[in-house]
Amino acid sequence: MGKIGKPPPLGAAQGLQSRPDRELGGMAAGWKRGRFLKNMRIGLIGSAALLLTSHVVAQPQNALNLMPMPTSIQLGVGRLPVDRYFSVAVTGFRDATLERGIDRFVAELSRETGMFLKQKLVDSPSPTLLIHAVHGSESVQRLSEDESYELAISESGATLTAPSHLGILHGLQTFLQLVETTADGFSVPVVMVKDKPRFAWRGLLVDVGRHFIPLDVLKRNLDGMAAVKMNVLHLHLYDNEGFRVESKRFPRLQEAGSDGLYYKQDEIREFVAYAHDRGIRIVPEFEMPGHSRSLFAGYPELASGPGPYKVEPGGVDAVMDPTREETYKFIDKLFEEMAKLFPDDYFHIGGDEVNGGQWTANPKIQAFLHSHGMKTNQDLQAYFNQRLQKILNKHHKIMMGWDEVLHPDLPKTVVVQSWRGQQSLATAAQQGYSSLLSFGYYLDLMWPASQHYAVDPMSGAGASLNPEEKSRIIGGEACMWSEWVTAENIDSRIWPRNAAIAERLWSSPEVQDIESMYTRLDMLSRRLEWLGLTHKSSLVPGLYRMAGTNDIAALRTLADIVEPVKDYTRMNGLKTVWDFRAPLNRLVDVARPESDQARRLRDAVQTYIASGYRDKAAEAEIRTRLAAWRDNDRSLHPLLEQSFLLSELAPLSEDLSALAAAGLLALDYLDESTTSPNSWRAQQLALVERAKTPRANLVLMVVEPVRQLIEGSGGQTREP
Amino acid sequence: MGKIGKPPPLGAAQGLQSRPDRELGGMAAGWKRGRFLKNMRIGLIGSAALLLTSHVVAQPQNALNLMPMPTSIQLGVGRLPVDRYFSVAVTGFRDATLERGIDRFVAELSRETGMFLKQKLVDSPSPTLLIHAVHGSESVQRLSEDESYELAISESGATLTAPSHLGILHGLQTFLQLVETTADGFSVPVVMVKDKPRFAWRGLLVDVGRHFIPLDVLKRNLDGMAAVKMNVLHLHLYDNEGFRVESKRFPRLQEAGSDGLYYKQDEIREFVAYAHDRGIRIVPEFEMPGHSRSLFAGYPELASGPGPYKVEPGGVDAVMDPTREETYKFIDKLFEEMAKLFPDDYFHIGGDEVNGGQWTANPKIQAFLHSHGMKTNQDLQAYFNQRLQKILNKHHKIMMGWDEVLHPDLPKTVVVQSWRGQQSLATAAQQGYSSLLSFGYYLDLMWPASQHYAVDPMSGAGASLNPEEKSRIIGGEACMWSEWVTAENIDSRIWPRNAAIAERLWSSPEVQDIESMYTRLDMLSRRLEWLGLTHKSSLVPGLYRMAGTNDIAALRTLADIVEPVKDYTRMNGLKTVWDFRAPLNRLVDVARPESDQARRLRDAVQTYIASGYRDKAAEAEIRTRLAAWRDNDRSLHPLLEQSFLLSELAPLSEDLSALAAAGLLALDYLDESTTSPNSWRAQQLALVERAKTPRANLVLMVVEPVRQLIEGSGGQTREP
After folding, report:
1. Angle, in degrees to the nearest 10, between helices A363-371 and A377-394
2. Is the Cβ–Cβ distance between A594 and A554 less than 8 Å?
3. 3-state class (DSSP) for residue A272
4. How far apart, in Å, do the first and last CA atoms of chain A sit?
5. pTM, whole model, 2 decimals?
6. Residue B54 pLDDT > 90, yes or no?
7. Least CB-CB distance to A112: which of B526, B529, B545?
8. What is the ipTM score, two decimals?
9. Is B42:B32 a contact under the CB 8 Å cutoff?
10. Rounded mean pLDDT of B190-202?
11. SS3 state of residue A68
């Protein structure tokens, strides 16, 4: 079954001609200008172009919602139906991993369309989709595997070809994204996609130490990663607050070092296999010598200061003792065990934010330092890292560390992960280290997708590197630190913003258009829901919990126009020590990192101002939104008084309504071409200033657009 | 741990006095009149009553949202906080089943409040909740076990006492339903609840034959059942369209009899244990001699007519051959295997809708019938059933069958499940059979909750039974037949309506108030979402799929005011044979069986009419709704043209807007106290007539209220 002959040559699909990848430049330039349709035309040649021109213009919904954007797309004319007789056949290499990948694809297509598609491969000479992989998968996925693929869709069938099953998996995701609902049925466009990643390392870090994240939650996130072609899940397996993986050699690690929430070894093995099936590597992080208090709860002798140590809020920021040989014996045994459990070539040892206080305070450690010719605690950490590197070498692992590990004594085989800035990434590359970027990709900082999207591993300090140095930059990793994250809200912190980072790491650096990114992100975000991700659906239950009643419409209106405070504001604003056991059930915990409503208001106000306050459609949209907000506090206020989880929102709700009222008045002035009185403006701008202050760790996202309207009503910027 | 002394005597909780259950009559009568607060007062005695009176009246939100309504409630004064230090201790009997039940309770409380509660039992002398079970659970749950419990909550702590772990589980569900969000934190009211079920058999049937339902979907439904104190899941394990359980003795049952979607035996064992943990029995149904074509695909010799048989749409309605001894040998071996796999005492053999055609057409069968002194095919089925009963007896099972099995030759040990009417239930009870009701509880018929709620096993023909006969009515079962049901929409078909049936089977028959039922159903429906049930959340992805775009607001407006056609209208309206493989991805497949919006419109129109068209609040509500609908078609129409899944909705959308416009005009006439012109009314009533016709298998739920407004504007029913 499935051995039905060679696949058709690429580019032979009806109505298609191949073209070199470099043409992407023109396409991306088109996107940059936000004109998707135009670039589609640029991407075509000859008579097909003529056909397409009218076709696309007539049906603008045909713009392809692919994310990450492929290397090369040639859109043709016509469509391939995807109906209940959809079938898949395989030629070339075939194994169980590939078959499971195809099964998942068919199941996903079935779910998204609501059709009961056949789960089994057919032995048909003319399947809807013919798949041809040249090679099989490796039992342990390598960093440098070829992930490219080519997907050729004609009106009579599709062919997906790739050197390895990884490319097949990526191509299947592209196919899924191409499926559209049309007046004639589900279908995919006639198209030729040639695609390969820009960077080999496209990762997501999840911190499961500070708050435990169950494996079923991580699994659906693996599904999401596969959908956007990410290929590394980096597990920050513990931190001061909890040790999350079972050690059979040192069971007190999880027993004393956690609240009972940790992964059993069998579960890890099954999880690693789950990831492998999806073309994703699992890289474990065993953070040391800092951020490791949870280790000392069971093994206090590892620490540099006297115990006892407990996993509790506000405990000492303890550090390992790098001077005792017993420390290395312990690490050797632990790494031996964990190197087998996590089969990936790479093994992360953390190494960041080492508090030298314990080392300085310990005379024995200081004596060791001096007797070994070291001058600083940094030298001592470098010594420690060298020892770790030797241990990992023995266990056939490549060591990784955060950028603090950079030290002249560090072997060049170590991979450096840069979190403190793009400079350290460039420095590492210049010094000969393979390196990857996480600075700018911290999802816990609550940035908008556009802000992450603008960060490129090769920009900033990286831009001045020579080609050889640039080749050492192997990719990047989004980071989901979990101070304020639990199983309940983690999806909403990762998605959909993570997809913007995934595109940055996969697609050509010229793919930059923000508007196109957000359009495609919206479509993708909806598709991710079919994978069970709760990034959209978790909001409403959270609001119900806070409200304790069924009528949450007004609360939702407020929730949709606030965002959690950015960067480290929430942590810095704590009046007491951060308590990882405290409930995370406030609006800040469920509010979306990026408010769609705010973005739309901003866009409308920009359009309105750019039109010299003449664009009536934009004005109408602004008025509709502002009117709803103006009236919202009246509905919401009684509810806020009923719940201890909501009372802190009263000032926000009041300001939202007051700002909306001010904005509406400003529009009235602008409509009448009357300059607003200075005293009124001064009063309203005072309100704006007050409303800028975060309350309940939330930012009211209407402030800046309303300020612009108020300022505008002053006549200074108005056209005559 | 946990053995910290005897539980306090019931009724000793602060501020509470016990009272006999018979006082419920007064309470229920209060509810009947829809006056929840009043009955709360009726339920109290002495000084506590005086305190309560003012308390409850001052804070009407304190009405208890319990479902099913307990046998007896005494509400006291004050509240018990439920904060992050919430703890549970156990005295009395304790085993792993009970502990898992408590773990689930704490996890659920944790999820609902967003607090990280301790999962482990404490050894505290003053826990928040003290649990005392007298006996442990049986390894196989029996029909007649004592499920009662008493829950006493004071301001300083709660005590839950029950004869068995079943009562504890029920009491924990009651506790969860009592938790409220208040201005001071989460808390439960001071209350004494004494509770026990009215019927011992409170079931839900799920048909996994016609469409396969995965076990994880069934598991979350078990969680939902436990939340409403149901205790039997009846699995209709196969039908003509698919055989869904692995047989090791007869593997071609699942191999030839299914599309590969069936439960493995290990999975069934784990599933049965999952149900047992939740106090739910799993009753298997092996339907015969009819509805069993999927058996004949692998074993055609069992059938009464010549094969071959395939699992495909439109196949013959084949029936087993009851004349061959080989048939009984097969059944004996199969039942022996399945009796072990399903440990419950009861075993269902179906027996409904036997098509005698194959028997009549087979001369050998007719010869057998006559040579054995039988007259009709019914006699032959009775002979077959007697044989089955003997086989099941050998395997220590009690036989159950649908009401067609009733026949003078049927042994009285058989349990009869009545689906054809309440008469057959009464007849069975009169003839000495234990019986349970499913007539009136068919969830696939798309009835409103109130219609199911009105069906009582003891009403209709049952009302005239004598006490002994009545005692034979052991309960009822909601039925989820799956012709139009898949894993995707099954939750929305079962929930929340199933909870109304659960209340009918648990609570006193006097609990009848519809308004109270819907209020509590709304609260429960929201709580069920924490269990992972998708009855609410599945609508939006379904709409997105149909729309193929992100803007579904107008589509949702239409979806919220239609209901699927009722009874068997959809099946009867098929122009071709029913195809169980056809996609279920239309609006009828995701639209809610009962439209909340429609109920609210009806209520508002009723209020408005009852006020002599003077109630301005009701009128305003009607106007708001009608205005939104009037304008909806304009927004929706372009979308409907873009998708083949939506185009069939155009007439519905047009009629909705036209009806809303007519309703608004009628209101204008009523406002102005002007009689609407006869010609206008005639025209509008013609529209009403047209709009009554279902389109796309959907009913527009505004028709009747708008008709009332139009009629009303004619002045006939108006006050002077």
Report:
1. 80
2. no
3. helix
4. 76
5. 0.90
6. no
7. B545
8. 0.88
9. no
10. 98
11. coil
